[in-house]
Amino acid sequence: xxxxxxxxxxxxxKKSGGNIYEQYLRDIDLEIAHEFLIEVNxxxxxxxxFNFYFSLYKVSKKEYSTVIRKSESSxxxxxxxxxxxxxxxxxxxxxxxxxNMFQRFAHQNLLRNLDKVDTLVVxxxxxxxxxxxIGFRRIKVIYNPFEIKQYLDYNSKKIEQFKIxxxxxxxxxxxxxxxxxxxxxDKTYEALxxxxxxxxxxxxxxxxxxxxxxNLNFQEYILLLQSSSLSVLMSQIDEGWNRVAHxxxxxxxxxxxTGRGGMGELLExxxxxxxxxxxxxxxxxxxxxxxxxxxxxxTLSYVKNFFLEKFYMEWKNIL
Length: 319
Fold this sequence. Notes:
Radius of gyration: 21 Å
Low-confidence stretches: none
Mean pLDDT: 92
Distance between the termini: 18 Å
Shape: globular
Number of helices: 13
Order of helices and strands: EHEHEEHEHEHHEHEEHEHEHEHHH
């Protein structure tokens, strides 16, 4: 009997929410080959483009029984293979014309080739409904996984040391996410800049705001979330889920967010605050700070249910 061969196609190892999801998939305990479609040493965008397409074409000619790929890699799908497509979200990048055009083209390509998709894996009910509304039914929701224990280790001494190290003591900390326009961080800063709090961002982005932007390892990132009185995540995109919001709640930090896309499901189910209008954001944040909001045990139980073993079990059931 011929041995079953499964390949998982990767495009990047950057620490975005989608890539973290696929990193966990790379760790699953099954005989899966993991192949990067773009060679690491290729820097030129035109070469990357042709490298990407040629790699996809070669995959379609190989004797794989099952191919797992992101939605933007849904070119040259072979109907003789079992095609599993992972869809995180759709938001054409506004900061790069070429990337924007590619993302639009790739999304339309996916919609044209849904008949070749055996299983479409989405990360929230929002996107399940999106594809249901266009008549596609072979959909499985598999949520983002979290290594729960990493967030629950709460050490008051380490938190105080973290605040002092980064000069974030003496005032409440309000974490406003990554410094990116698509995440609404510029408008969030403008709305909240007069509050007597430490506004903090972390990680990479195109914005250069006059507040602390911390480049942290994962352990210190968790300390930042645990130190914060609130996470204010005013994303302007239809999110797949929102790892930062989920991680904040695991760290017992209340969240205020737009609730766009799959983020709405997370905030509604965890009983967090949804605020769409930046004009009202300052008042909403002030009220939340004055009330000293806390994460309930019911909410904590909900977000703890997205554990790694469950993620692996659901993927193994598909494969």
